[in-house]
């Protein structure tokens, strides 16, 4: 109701204009129909008139011909019979001539108008006056006469002066034929014709009257007009005009109403007589045609009107629905825009709250610290809290910056060679305090990761994982379980790629389906009431999604309210071209003890792949039993891997138990995803030989186990202890001071350093060097003569055997993503920002030395 | 006057540089070397000659040295000047000369003072 009342003004306008158009077109079409009917009626009338006039003309010609023929016959008689013959002979001759010309009556007319019959019955003209007058004037004339029996005949009178019996000279010779002669000849009485004819005299009386008497009234009126005695009644206009025309012997056409039907009347004077041929055409015949025509036209007009209207309706409707659709879309877009702006303002409100909270802490703690300058403990405590708050604040701001970068499309990925192991280890280290603070259990599964080294933007990958994991801890209540699992499979992108699956699962508060829909929208976070205490910008998932998309990965989420959430991410990453170390260990017997079956299985698989025969069990008690059993069979386990957290007996207790039974010979290693510094002393006392950190990558297992297996340990402990002696590096650096700093730092590592003062020198030195003389080139970017970019390109294009393989590492004060990208595009392998950080430099050098020549 | 005071005076981060270079002697050695570095001089001359490409290189080098030695204050002004030159904003770079010169001589004077105190 409300809706229909408040019809959109546009819609109302459309409806009104449509109705207007409808009415307008109906009126126009009706007018058109009526006008056309009128016009065609008129045209038909005109055609009728033309037709009638033609017919009448033809008829009068015909009449003339017939009459002329007869006249010529009569003249023929007159011409062959000379007037000077004696009476009797003359008459016989005349009669004879007349009879052979098919006249059955012949008479002579006296000056007084008396007829002297020569043959046939006596005949009197019906209207002798004009006839005799004409003869007297020497004209020929036709008239109708009757004999004694009442038969009507046609009289043909011509000028002829024959002696009459009374001695006078006649004024004319008159011959006659029966009236039928004319009527038949002219087919005046034929039935079934469209028209019929009357022949009347100039006074309106009939000469030949058609059997059709419907016009009697008309002729009566006509006769009345000529009757001077009855002058009182005014006659109808048409009749009067007709009468006038008749008098003046003019052609005339008119119509006359008979019993409501129209008749067209057409009069034409006939020659050689005072007669007038009146043809009558009943209009009903014509009218029928016209009516059919006009009704058909009306019908067709209406149909075309209707079809045009139908088309209009169709178009209008289509347009209308399109417009409705557009309006609808517009409304949707508006809603979305409103929603977005609402989310942004909500976000601002949240943000200002979220920013204020750590800011308050910082301000407050600073004030407290200032007030207690001398109380070191207090100040330290304050500083710790300030640090925490600052970090939190920085995180928030970083998120916002990332988001604004994403929204302006400026977030670029820097693909570098990373180790998945390092990334995951790093993340586990970062997550440990959070997980520990909430007393959650943190399971890490690494299955079948063969390609630990891949090309990927490590920083962004870290960001994704950290975001998912910190969300998991955030939204999982104390004591919950969080699981991170990784596995790889073949990538559809080809052999050089590997598909890494990452699963992050928790049993936290979960998400509602409604929230899942806008999970990746910016500025949204789980509904306020449930998670009021949880801080965050609400940008994490949007950033995560963007990064995953940018890495051409996929992210899926399954979540159920109050049950938990599982994220599943896949990336297709390019394998780094590392020479796989041959990771094989002696075929020792080994026991893995963990309450997590999946971990046991994956760990034993990994162990098998490096040559170790491994068994697993799920509880500490079982483990002790197994160890004792094997001992009795003299088939001792040579290494035992124990989880720290176990149901019932924990790892430390199990270790104690085993040591009690078997002594100190077997190395027992503790697996832990947690920082073991807290329980390290306790563990060492209980007889734990060492620790292995989760995740259990193949390389983690290999490197941790080999030291207990008598295999020579690798010297990869801490960066500074690495001996790079014998390595030779070419350093391109135009500034002496910078060069000396670098030399100072690198010579500590045993590296021999060659100095190139600029890009050109660097290129020359490299070209002159023997094969494998330099192990790497460190390249400054901004140098005179040749920049680092140019030098690198030039080096890569030389014919030197190491031209393509030698690692070139940029060292520059420009540490923007674009600069790094440019370095890599020019053919450099990595980028180190100045100032030189020894451990960072060592890490990178180690990677490239390993890769190329180890 | 010790090296830390010297860093304080020139507006640098001693802890940071020590963290990286690890030995006080190294830091001191490089700080002395900085007295002989010609980058700033080259920058000034190039700016005068309006050779901005050379000036950019010089100031960029100075920036690199400051990063290596954690001369934070001079690093900041040289970073601004580098950015200005990179963006071809000559006027801004010229405006920066004053600030740079102040920071440079503050650094140089602090090191000289320190050197003097050590020699005594």
Please describe what this structure looks like.
The complex is a heterodimer of chains A (854) and B (120). Chain A has 23 helices and 28 strands. In chain A, strands 12, 13, 14, 15, 16, 17 and 18 form a seven-stranded mixed β-sheet that branches. In chain A, strands 2-1-6-5-4-3 form a six-stranded antiparallel β-sheet. The longest helix of chain A has 89 residues, at 283-371. Among the domains of chain A are: 81-185, Beta-Lactamase, CATH 3.30.450; 412-575, 2-Layer Sandwich (Heat Shock Protein 90); 589-706, Response regulator (Rossmann fold); 719-853, 3-Layer(aba) Sandwich (Rossmann fold). The model of chain A is unreliable at 529-533 and 712-720 (pLDDT under 50). With 854 residues, chain A is an alpha/beta fold. The relative contact order of chain B is 0.17. The mean pLDDT of chain B is 87. The termini of chain B are close together. Chain B has one domain: Four Helix Bundle (Hemerythrin (Met), subunit A) (Up-down Bundle), CATH 1.20.120. The radius of gyration of chain B is 14 Å and the shape is elongated. Chain B has seven helices and no strands. Chain B is 85% helix and 0% strand. Chain B has helices at residues 3-10, 14-21, 24-36, 39-48, 52-69, 72-86, 90-119. Chain B is mainly alpha-helical.
